UniProtKB/TrEMBL annotation, chain B:
Protein's name according to its UniProt entry: Target of rapamycin complex 2 subunit MAPKAP1
Transmembrane segments: 40-62
Family membership noted in the UniProt record: Belongs to the SIN1 family.
Keyword Transmembrane attributed: yes
Domain spans labelled Target of rapamycin complex 2 subunit MAPKAP1-like Ras-binding: 341-407
GO function term, MF aspect, one: enzyme-substrate adaptor activity
Source species of the chain: Anser cygnoides
Amino acid sequence: MNAAQGTVGSDPVILATAGYDHTVRFWQAHSGICTRTVQHQDSVSSPAAPPGPLPGGGPLLSPGGAQVNALEITPDRSMIAAAGYQHIRMYDLNSNNPNPVINYDGVSKNITSVGFHEDGRWMYTGGEDCMARIWDLRSRNLQCQRIFQVNAPINCVCLHPNQAELIVGDQSGAIHIWDLKTDHNEQLIPEPEVSVNSVHIDPDASYMAAVNSSGNCYVWNLTGGIGEEVTQLIPKTKIPAHNRYALQCKFSPDSTLLATCSADQTCKIWRTSNFSLMTELSIKSNNPGETSRGWMWDCAFSGDSQYIVTASSDNLARLWCVETGEIKREYSGHQKAVVCLAFNDSVLG
Amino acid sequence: MDLSKQCNLNWSRIKIVHCTKLDKILCIQNMNHLDSVFGFDFLFCLFVWVSLSAVFVVLGTVSMEQDGEKSHVTSDDTGMCEMVLIDHDVDLEKFNPSSTYGDSGSETQGSNGETQGYVYSQSVDITSSWDFGIRRRSNTAQRLERLRKERQNQIKCKNVQWKDRNTSYSAEELSSLFEKKNFRVKSPCSGKQSILSVRLEQCPLQLNNPFNEYSKFDGKGHVGTTATKKIDVYLPLHASQDKLQPMTVVTIANAKVHDLIGLICWQYTSEGREPKLNDNVNAYCLHIAEDDGEVDTDFPPLDSNEPIHKFGFSTLALVEKYSSPGLAAKQSLFVRINAAHGFSLIQVDSMKVTMKDILQKALKRRKGSQRGSGPQYRLEKQSEPNVPVDLDCTLESQSTLEFCLVRENSISGDKVEIDPVTNQKASTKFWIKQKPISIDSELLCACDLAEEKSPSHAIFKLTYLSNHDYKHLYFESDAATVNEIVLKVNYILESRASTARADYFAQKQRKLSRRTSFSFQKEKKSGQQ
């Protein structure tokens, strides 16, 4: 590690990637240099009992292992959370400590999704144990600690910009909207029995998007959600985005774009004005004989929506120009598939 | 790990030239592996046994390898099997929607879980990828080590268990705890550039690391789970640095030396170090280094094809392979000095250094030589033998970076010093004495041309007094040199009146006269007939 550089947290641009190779790597995004690696080891104890068969099908995460399922940087940029099997580990961004500083456990099975309240008051997770949890990070008596239970393993959780509604997508194809203030919840099932893999709401709370294992992307218009107003979801469109599993969807910070990642080796970028395809970012080989190079697992836009970073199972993360689809940087170093990333880019002015 | 196969592979590669040092290192390597299984006493006996049987091992190589091939190998050291499984199914394993889960039968449980669900229920990352097939259930010591490390790390790490909140919320409580924020208040950030965009504009060229293919040998993330090796590498000296600082590299243990060089170059480049390296990995080689960074020249560079785990050295130096003179001035220069015992690489700061400095550095390197009292040396260009280099000239003027260190004035008035240079290409005729000898002129009796086979091959004989005996030494060289030596020595002998020489000739006369008298007697006898 170059002694001249500061810690990851001191850099206004933070890019982190993780996957199956027991490490979380931090990169200097504009140069491609890996500046720091932290260990995400497997715990030596073997899993307690083999899980039973899972209905409906969907992303099956095997027991044990040190893979990271999700990464999220805390809003104050002090730490990064890595969600794995039965735990969430927090790593310090303001030092070079290669080991986690906090370990959250007491949950069974894989935790698939993690996020934070914007003030850092609490952390939310969703997992294969069919529960979404709110972990109180501040108060001693765990005021905010809560559980929301559904009937199928949870693949994704997303927090509404109003910080009080949690959107949960599960393997049975249901999308739950859990109102934290009133404790009410409602369900949407755009495509029954097809696992919902990712949900996201744009920063303006104008749209909500969800992608599933059929490769479809569903978009709703959002209204209300402030003060006493209940959030309303009005179906807007269905995009047949991919012909294989769609794994991730993300809106750009300026809400003009929606990206979808898929097992078909592409990440497609759609205009939210009319949901037409703007760019296709592909890692497909030109050689027709070559089978899949890897799936596109995750993506994140830069602060000004000009660039996007993708994580794929060919062990690489890449930086692309959104408009031209040109690869700008490659982040190589992972020994195995990269399945998640976290990107925090600052905007000038 | 199949020990017998591992040991066989190591032993079969012992080269007799480096037997003594490498052999011991191999023993240590083997001991590291064996440590987990056998006790120390056994290791000691094994060490002694291996040292003693080194010669026999080389001879027995063929039979041992054959034994190894016949023996049952249970582990897949090549990693091919798991590569097929892993790379092909990594995504499906995570995402398998169709197959039934069935019994998990994970590799730690020896249950009868070998049913159809088995393949897909295997966790993608547990299987050993780069190690030698070390499996958790068979290697207790490694597991214990990991547990210990885990415990250590856990001590520093705060553990938070999930706790359910027993009391239920009232409506007011919920409202106050989970307020709905007015998200529309957020100021739009459209039109403004992000810091990443600015930075990308400032360095538009893709800083593609030409050594990316070697990044897979990086073992940093694998410490404790896979066999890795930590090495401190001394790099070519940067102009602004006065002191060498090593770069720490962690490599997967089964990488080859060539791969390690690639990894070093990759890490160097990805850390943004200057000056930039040559794109070609083959331009570099690794030498063993001392802890202070000095390159150890007793050993040649590490063989590119050898696996790195074979070597016990943890301090190495990356050296630019020396191919042609006058290399790029930016890189630090290494001048190669060939001498009787091998060669040295002298580091110089620039081409402006004088030959005198280089000679002094070279002499310093020659272990055991003392200034002033020892033999005199001179430098010659490798390409121009017998032409001494002007010591006041700069390195630049020489247009070569390879020199020979030659003993000057092997023949002086006081002594005859001979430092025979072994011709490596010659056959193993060891009648030429290896050690340099020094004969006091007082004891020198004669020097004669013994044989002149061809212009390139002549032999001269030196006779000297040693403990009241006359000893003869034969030396071989090219005719010109031999004649020169004979001439010089005789000149010295004639100019000095040495008693030893006088005695020698006197004795020789006596011998001759005895012989003649003998024959005379014979003739006399025959004459009398």
